Automatic annotation (TrEMBL):
It comes from Pseudomonas fluorescens. NCBIfam families: HTH_metalloreg (NF033788). Coiled coil: none annotated. It comes from the Bacteria. InterPro entries: ArsR-like_HTH, HTH_ArsR_DNA-bd_dom, HTH_Metal-responsive_Reg, WH-like_DNA-bd_sf, WH_DNA-bd_sf. GO terms for biological process: response to cadmium ion; response to lead ion. Residues 2-97 form the HTH arsR-type domain. This is HTH arsR-type domain-containing protein. One of its GO terms (molecular function) is cadmium ion sensor activity. Gene3D superfamilies: Winged helix-like DNA-binding domain superfamily/Winged helix DNA-binding domain.
Length: 254
């Protein structure tokens, strides 16, 4: 890239960020979550059509990425460099990112099915723990492989990972969680993990919704095998230990 092209690129990106509505959109995505154009329109205080135009421009300049999840379309920052640039600008401008909190029913937000695998707070915690422990390794943006220790961990759960890898579907991949707006584990490995949790009665499935109910056994086993803090039963209520998703109260535990 020539110096002139570099200058033009900088000015285009600077102009895109400088527009107030786009600044609000970008700043609202700095928490690492993905959001719909409707949500971002509300954040930016513009119409849906105007937000779509802004998002198209930001996508064109590689400042945001589009994630298509079935019928849903979400936007997130393109990568951590965009967040770093915004943080630097906020330091200079002595500004702060606007706050945003999505509203999702507690029962569904904590644990639910996503097609044939697990979603919600519980699933995101498991996903993050698998990466942190080195059981899952990223091969690219949309795929994982198991490390030797990860293979041993899943085999300890009775999951034959070699058989899963021969299926005509993706083995393990990140699936964007619509309530947490962060990935949980999808693919045949995610489906096998859900079936194991159901079979072992770690979670039970509602008959009339996609909600999953964490059992007392499940809380114990997820904590023992994965090392994550989960809700505790106290006189019929639910108390939540300090976990990656923060402290909260949930009502779906038996």
């Amino acid at each position: 890239m020539s110096a002139e092209q570099h200058d033009i690129g900088v000015s285009q990106v600077a102009a895109a960020i400088a527009e107030p509505a786009r600044t609000k959109i970008l700043c609202s995505l700095m928490d690492g979550h993905a959001r719909t154009s409707t949500e971002l329109a509300a954040v930016a205080e513009v119409s849906a059509s105007t937000a779509s135009a802004h998002l198209a421009k930001l996508k064109e300049l590689a400042l945001v990425r589009l994630h298509v999840q079935g019928r849903h379309r979400y936007y997130s920052l393109a990568d951590k460099r965009v967040a770093q640039a915004l943080e630097a600008l906020m330091v200079i401008g002595q500004n702060t990112a606007p706050s945003f909190r999505a509203r999702t029913p507690d029962r569904l937000q904590f644990a639910r099915t996503c097609y044939d695998h697990m979603a919600g707070t519980l699933a995101v915690l498991l996903h993050d723990r698998m990466l942190e422990a080195g059981w899952l390794e990223e091969t690219d943006e949309q795929a994982y492989r198991l490390s030797d220790s990860g293979t041993a961990m899943f085999q300890g759960l009775g999951i034959e990972t070699q058989d899963l890898s021969t299926l005509r579907r993706r083995f393990a991949c990140p699936c964007l969680d619509w309530s947490m707006r962060r990935p949980h584990l999808g693919g045949s490995l995610g489906a096998a993990l859900l079936q194991t949790a159901l079979k072992r009665k770690w979670v039970t499935q509602d008959l009339d919704s996609r909600a999953l109910v964490l059992t007392a056994l499940g809380r114990k086993e997820f904590g023992r095998r994965f090392g994550i803090g989960l809700p505790l039963v106290v006189e019929g209520n639910v108390k939540v230990s300090k976990i990656a998703a923060g402290s909260a109260e949930f009502g779906n535990i038996r």
